[in-house]
Amino acid sequence: MIWTVSPDIELVLRDASEDVLPLSACRGATLRQAIIARSRRYTSERELLDEAIAERDQPADLAARALFFAPADAAKVQIALAELDGRGLIPAGPLRILDVGAGPGAMTLGALDYLHSIGSQVPIAAHALDRDREALKIYRRAVDALAARRSLSVSRTTEHVDLAAAPQRGEPAQLILLGTVLNELGAARSLSLVRELLSMLTPDGALIIVEPALRETARDLHLLRDAILDAGDAHVFAPCVRTQTPCPALDDEGDWCHEDRLVRLPERAAQLAGVTGLRTGGLKFSYLVLRRDGTPLVEHPEHAARVVSQPRKSKGKRECLACSELGREGVRLLKRNRSGDTRAFERARRGDVLVRLDGTGPPLGDISAAQPVDVVRPAEAAFADEPGDDSAEV
What we know:
This is Ribosomal small subunit Rsm22. By secondary structure, the protein is α/β, with parallel strands linked by helices.
């Protein structure tokens, strides 16, 4: 399926950015170069994250974050919300959204757009924390504009704060959003911050953490997952169907778990992706959804395994990597074992959950012709206007 970012998200970010920043920072070669530089800071030159950006380059860097990175990041939080929604776990009453390290507003905008898409009319109080005052100016304008376009009742507040130093205390929130923050803080502060935020989470709420899909940052998130579970701080709702520690992706230093979804960007973000050579169709990220109760991502998770790789098809077989309570193992269907019971496996993609219908444990190893397997797509309902190619040949 293709995840489509609403053009309205791009529009409100563009208008807000052009209100706050010099127009020269929001256009042309200056913007393109800033996008490439910011991408390098996120990926190949991560050591630069600890270095201050030169004052003259700060407007263009913020424009890059708002106009290129934020629209795609909005879709990432929508995927997590769709998985919660699929289990009926979006709180029904008035919502307080706490966006931690909000930047120009990607996570809040994605959440508001998702809530509108499911017909929610509940009052929303959105509170944003960030150390960048200029980014918060964009946040305020963009959130107000999208709320007006969507006819949502949103009261919006912001707070200037340094997350690296300040312990977080505040009113309870039903949705706490933490987008691309932890990878800049270090392991000890990341864990303490997540625990501080969990203390502010309502019993029916969710803490959504989105991080880059890099091996280094994803593995750090796996370690944080294990620390949270070992301490009994929260339940991991997604992406895991596995409730145990350690995360099997940590067994081999070359392994990590991340998402890779097809995305359709709005017009201008797509153009910027083309001219910079970045984000050419894939939405890559790692994430955690933490909750207080133990409601699982799918029913009967003990019989389930989440697909954590792209399926591979070769002569006479189709296979993928899946993670379950039994660990991280390959799942393979040979051509001679194709049957009506195994047909669903042939449609499986990364992020899907395989479920054995005979109640005999997760579907790992070789699938036999008599082994009934179903595929659950936890986020299927959200913003997908085109189905993916479900056809497959072994």
